[in-house]
Structures are given as structure tokens and as C-alpha cells.
From TrEMBL:
Subunit structure: Homotetramer.
Protein name: Acyl-CoA thioesterase 2
Organism this protein belongs to: Cohaesibacter gelatinilyticus
Swiss-Prot/TrEMBL catalytic activity: a fatty acyl-CoA + H2O = a fatty acid + CoA + H(+)
Record-annotated Acyl-CoA thioesterase-like N-terminal HotDog domain positions: 29-108
Length: 289
């Protein structure tokens, strides 16, 4: 297991403080604010710790209210709203400095048979046919800004293999669509809850960026102030987050300094296992200010 994946598992292993009360910590990565996916993943861990394991998370809906401070722990308070025969509902509030920074509702469902259908996975190259991150840096980023190079060179718990990298290395305008193969960069325990929490963690990566494609920008541009505002996920079936998943994303609209984005996650065999929706702030900064 890589040190980055070991760190991810440590981040998702919350400390129980009291009944329905947990403490999470942030990695010392030098960021000015906590990565949104970390808060989503930790909140889902906190909620899952209060649910019978035979009921699995099938949806979550969260709102980011304040930026997280990586220098201090995050307290997660769980409200056990309802425990029914098939479904149960939890509400989680993440707290720092005495104030809520994130709130989330999550629903859990006991497995049962029913009707099934799904939309098809896009026809894209398989991850083995795409360059890995080291090859991406060498082949596509010779002229990229230093902050983009540093991001892709750093050891991270999530490996990304974009189908198209040109967006990050030019100011061209593209359709607001992107496809990226993603996976945890190491083996995870077999517990399905861990895989859902890891997927929640990585689901916040790249999604907001999709709304910038059509404007010739990325979240790495210095004149863009990006931030997640809300995030929702639906888990459709079982999966492993340490195996390749295609994250197919699009952005139907940007308006009012906000970008709206959707994502579908497929196994390499084409099975749709999860969906995500996010609206984020994409405020353009006037450099003259």
C-alpha cells in the first residue's frame, strides 16, 4: 500500500468522541483550506458508523458553508433522524471553530430486488491505453504552469487518467464534457462502506472543472476563484474504488458565477455504479483589483 493511500485511510478513520460525535483530521499538505472531497468522505464515514452494516448508503446531499481550516480537527455530529424497516436517514454537521462548515443528509437502504436499467458508458479508450500521470507530466506539461506540474507530480491517493489533457495545457475552448479514469492508488479493505466513502472523497475531484471547459479556463488559472457549493451522490450498485472507474462528466449550464456539473461513474465493464451532481462557485477575479 502506498503512503498516500495509507494516509487516505487514516483520514477516513474518524475518532469516536461520544455517542454520535466524531473527530476527523486533515493531512498536512500545505493547502490553505480543506479539500471538499475529504469533508464529504469523512461526513459519510461518521453517518455510516451509526448505521447497521446491512444497510448501505444509496444517496447523500451536502452543502459547503465555510472553507475548512486544515490546521485544526473537524468535529462531525450525527443526528439519527429515522431508522425504518428498509431505509434509515442521517444528518451530519461538520463543525470548526464553533461554526458549521458543511452539512449533509444521507440515506441508507437494505438491499432488495427490483427493476433495473442504465444508460450506456461512453465509448472512450481504456485506462491502459492512456498515459499514466508520470507520462502525462513528461509528455504534455513541458510548457504547463508550475502549479499544474506540481499537482500531477505529487504522490496522491487517487490516480487520474484523463482521456484529454489539452484543457490543462492550453486556453482553447472545448465542449463542457470530460472523461477521466479514476481509482484509489492502492488496495482498500473489502468493507463496502470504505469504498463508498473513498468514492465520495474522489467524486469532488475534476467535477467543478468541467464547467470551465467551454470558457477556456481551468481551476488552476489564477483569475478563477473556484469552490464547491453543494454536492450530491447516488450509489446504484456495489463496486471497488481501488479498481478503474470511468468518471464521465458534463456541465449543462454556467450562470451567476456558478457552474453546474454532472458525473456518471462506470466500471471498466460498463456498469453504472454511481452518479454525482455539483454546483460550484467559478468567480472570475479582476486582476486590476
Amino acid at each position: 500500500m502506498s503512503s498516500a493511500v495509507d494516509k487516505l485511510l487514516t483520514i477516513l478513520d474518524l475518532e469516536p468522541l461520544e455517542h454520535n460525535l466524531f473527530r476527523g483530521r486533515s493531512p498536512d499538505d500545505g493547502w490553505q483550506r480543506v479539500f471538499g472531497g475529504q469533508v464529504i468522505g469523512q461526513a459519510l464515514v461518521a453517518a455510516s458508523r451509526t448505521v447497521d452494516p446491512e444497510r448501505e448508503a444509496h444517496s447523500l446531499h451536502g452543502y459547503f458553508m465555510r472553507p475548512g481550516d486544515p490546521s485544526v480537527p473537524i468535529i462531525y455530529e450525527v443526528d439519527r433522524i429515522r431508522d425504518g424497516r428498509s431505509f434509515c436517514t442521517r444528518r451530519v454537521v461538520a463543525i470548526q471553530h464553533g461554526k458549521a462548515i458543511f452539512t449533509m443528509a444521507a440515506s441508507y437502504h437494505k438491499k432488495e430486488p427490483g427493476l433495473e436499467h442504465q444508460i450506456d458508458m461512453p465509448d472512450v479508450p481504456m485506462p491502459e491505453d492512456l498515459p499514466n500521470e508520470r507520462e502525462l507530466v513528461e509528455a504534455f506539461m513541458a510548457k504547463a504552469p508550475d502549479n499544474i506540474k506540481a499537482y500531477f507530480r505529487k504522490e496522491r491517493p487517487i490516480e487520474l487518467r484523463p482521456v484529454n489533457m489539452e484543457h490543462y495545457t492550453s486556453n482553447k475552448k472545448f465542449k463542457p464534457i470530460q472523461n477521466i479514469w479514476v481509482k484509489v492508488n492502492g488496495d482498500l479493505p473489502d468493507d463496502p462502506a470504505i469504498h463508498r466513502c473513498a468514492l465520495a472523497y474522489l467524486s469532488d475531484m475534476t467535477l467543478l472543472d468541467t464547467s470551465l471547459f467551454v470558457h477556456g479556463r481551468s481551476v488552476f488559472n489564477k483569475d478563477v476563484a473556484p469552490a464547491s457549493l453543494d454536492h450530491a451522490m447516488w450509489f446504484h450498485s456495489d463496486f471497488r474504488a481501488d479498481e478503474w472507474l470511468l468518471y464521465s462528466q458534463d456541465s449543462p449550464s454556467t450562470s451567476g458565477a456558478r457552474g453546474f456539473n454532472r458525473g456518471s461513474l462506470y466500471t471498466r465493464e460498463g456498469k453504472l455504479i454511481a452518479s454525482a451532481v455539483q454546483e460550484g462557485l467559478i468567480r472570475i477575479i479582476d486582476k486590476k483589483d
